[in-house]
Design goal:
With 195 residues, the protein is an alpha+beta fold. 25% of the residues lie in helices and 38% in strands. It is built from 6 helices and 11 strands.
Length: 195
């Protein structure tokens, strides 16, 4: 079946290999409760930051020295999947990472994979399965996600007649346990398994 890849989904489970990244002088990352800072970084109003937190997402900020340079969110309990807004329930041990950005002047320094790994450490043992995705044309996100240790799980595709589907790339048993499972079950195109 002819189709175009529109997005990719990845996962990392506690116990999976996590590449050791060389230290980056001045880098740190932590959860943030500074809603004004987050609103400025994310370019939304404080009400939107409060809404995201109320829906179960934890914001994180990466710093170089005293300068905030990147941010990202970890959803627990439920995940509102863009662009459809589908409300995906998450089990207590699942997290979905979403809406990450590194400020333009700080890109290309390896901040993104270090932020992802910092969040994996902060999430603690209660969370054991993590998922993240990116648009097909976002090569920088792909590099950072893979560098942090996430494995490709699925391609989300659009067929020639406009239908959206999914191609399982990783281990099928993990795909069906991921937060992407509702999308994978609803719109499978094919399954390539452990390729």
């Amino acid at each position: 079946m002819i189709h175009t890849v529109i997005a990719y989904g990845y996962d990392w489970w506690r116990g999976d290999p996590r590449p050791e990244l060389t230290p980056l002088a001045g880098f740190s990352a932590a959860p943030s409760d500074d809603y004004l800072l987050l609103a400025r970084l994310v370019r939304v109003d404080v009400v939107e930051v409060e809404r995201r937190v109320a829906r179960g997402s934890q914001p994180y900020v990466a710093w170089m020295g005293k300068r905030p340079v990147a941010y990202g969110w970890s959803a627990a309990g439920r995940y509102e999947a863009p662009p459809t807004g589908a409300d995906i329930p998450l089990s207590p041990d699942e997290r979905v990472f979403w809406d990450f950005a590194t400020l333009p002047e700080w890109r290309g320094q390896g901040i993104y994979p270090r932020l992802l790994q910092a969040i994996l450490a902060f999430e603690g043992p209660a969370a054991s399965r993590f998922s993240i995705g990116h648009a097909a044309d976002n090569a920088a996100s792909q590099r950072g996600i893979v560098k942090a240790g996430f494995q490709l799980l699925a391609e989300f595709v659009q067929t020639a007649d406009g239908e959206v589907g999914a191609v399982v790339i990783g281990r099928p048993e993990r795909a069906l346990l991921s937060p992407f499972r509702s999308m994978l079950e609803a719109m499978p195109v094919e399954n390539r398994g452990d390729r």
